[in-house]
Amino acid sequence: TRNKWRAEAKKSYDFVAGEQWSPEERQVMEDLMRPVTVFNKVAPIVDAIVGHEMANRQAVAYLPRQTGASEVAEVLSAAAKWVRDESGAEGEESDAFFDAVVTGEGWMSTEPNYDDDPDGQILMERVDPREMDIDPSCHRKNYKGAKWLCRSRKWDRARAEEMWPGADFEPTTRRSSDEPIDVISAAFYHLDSGTQGRSGTEGNLVLIHDFQWWEYEPIYRVKPEQIVPETLAAMQLVPEMREALKPSETGLLTFTEEQWKLLTPYVMGKPVVQRKKAYKRMFWSGSQVLEEKDCPTKDNFTFNAITAKRDH
Q: What is the pTM of this model?
C-alpha cells in the first residue's frame, strides 16, 4: 500500500508542476508534430490553499495553567518564537503543508543540530514525505500513536563515513530513486532494508535509514518521605538525579529502572510500579546497525506528520 501511495505522490507532484502528459501521450503528440500544451488548472488552486495557510499562520504560545505562572509562560513563548525564527520554521511548515495538499501528508523534523552552533540549536525542517515509512496499523490523524516510523534518505558518502567510520554502507545504486523502500519487516530485525535495485550512477551517495520506535519501560514512584533523609539530601548533589527529584502534581517522585536499583536499599515501603513509553532511535544501512540511542526528546519522535483528508 505504501509503495502504491509513493508512486501516486510522484504523479501528484508532477501534475501540479504541469507535467500532466504521460510519456506515451507525449510521444504521440511529438510524432504528429503537435505542441504538447498544458492548461494547468490545478496549480492555481493549490497555490490559493497554501497561500491561505501562509496568511493565517498560527503562533506558538504557552498559556499559564496556575496562578503566578504567567511570567514563566511569557518566557517560554518568547523562547519558542526565537527557536522558530532561527530555524525558519514558518517557511518549512508551509512547505510541509504544500506536501499535505498535494499528496495527502506532509512531514516535519525537529531535533538539535550542532553544525552551525557548537552549543546546539533546535532545527525544524520539512521532510520529503516519500522518504517516510509508517506503522501500517496506525490510522489516527497525523499518525498519532504510531508504533514506529522510518526515514530512508540518501547521504553523501563522505558525510556518512565521518559520522560512522568504518561502516559498510548500502549504495543507492541498488534501488531506483523512485521506488519505495520496504522497511516494515527489516526495521525490527536489523537484517534487511528491502533492497529492490536502484538504477543510475550515484557512487558518492549511500542509503541510510533513520528508524524510530517506542517501547514500554517500567518506572517506580514513591513519596519523598519514603526515602531515607540522608540519601535524599545526597541525591540533590547528583545532576542525573535532580530531574527525578521534582515531584509530579500527585507529589510522587519518579525513577527509572536503573535509578531504582541504586535506591532500593534506601527506600521505605513499596513503590508504585507503572510503565511509560520510551522513544528509541536507530540508524542502519544495508544489514549493519550504525548507531542506537534514545530519541533526543525521549518522549516523542523527531518526525511529525500533517495528514489531510482520509481516503478509506
A: 0.81
